[in-house]
Predict the structure of tRNA (guanine-N(1)-)-methyltransferase.
Amino acid sequence: MKIDCITIFPEMFAPMKSSIMGRAQAKGLFEFNTVYLRDFAINAYGQVDDVPYGGEPGMVLRPEPLAKAIRSTGVKEDGGKVIYLTADGVPFTHKIAKELSQENHLVLVCGHYKGIDDRIRQTEVDMEISIGDFVVSGGELPAMLVTDAVVRLLDGALGHKESGETDSFAQGVLGWPVYTRPEEFEGKKVPEVLLSGHHKNISEWRRQESLKRTQERRPDIFKNLEINTTFGDK
């Protein structure tokens, strides 16, 4: 898989060399590149933005640099997808991450200021994604979140494949509580069932805890669940 991020702040992507993302690149599971939008500026001053028509305050990223930057990646020739990170996109979910992990080439367009010229959204962008009902200063952080969520689903990205299969949302519900040593910490003990070695009881405890947590914290998900959700012994 190849992932290109179009940005005016490539230095923000330094963390992509760390942890799981860094190891996945070292293993050759995916290739990550930043595409510096100012390399496609309309003049020698590096201009990539302009004032919006209609008189509202702020700046808009111009279509010419964006079109050139996107086309320079070869994503269309590769049959890949161009994704624009924007607050008015569709909510990002585990399901979307899983679908994107099957692509061979993704281009993530990081907006800034008031966003990008809408003609680019109409002609070059295949999908628009939002990471939540809030606004951040640019698309770089959302792009890193999307990249992380997608890459960790690639075979070999995680040390234990099963770890990703039991994460929140992987089975349609929130994850269950997890514990490690010591058995008692400041008067609070690990639930006895987890110490029992009885795999069927442990699986049922996890199921009940996941359903309880989902009902309490995400009633929107819980109301659409088929309550026969089961969890294997992971």
User: Anything to note?
Assistant: The longest strand covers residues 81-91. The mean pLDDT is 93. The chain has two domains: 1-151, 167-222. The domain at 1-151 is CATH 3.40.1280.10 (Alpha/beta knot).
